[in-house]
Design a protein that fits this description.
The chain has one helix and six strands. The chain is mainly beta. This is Hemin uptake protein HemP. It comes from Nitrosomonas supralitoralis.
């Protein structure tokens, strides 16, 4: 991770001075996009589309 600090004594990571994140909730985007550049997410009965652009940015649409 770039510009990240990892605490060995706890399960938190601080990325770019943001709030600490529980490592159990940390998902590498490459694991989501193994099959292509689009992922369908079902959240509370609603479908969302997460796309990875050619520039490597993420776009979430309902």
């Amino acid at each position: 991770m770039n510009a990240a600090t990892l605490s060995q004594s706890s399960s938190t990571v601080n990325v770019n001075q943001s709030e600490p994140i529980d490592l159990h909730a940390l998902i590498d985007s490459n694991s989501l996009f193994k099959s292509g550049d689009v992922v369908i997410i079902l959240h509370k009965g609603e479908r969302y589309t997460l796309r990875r652009t050619r520039n490597g940015k993420l776009i979430l649409n309902k």
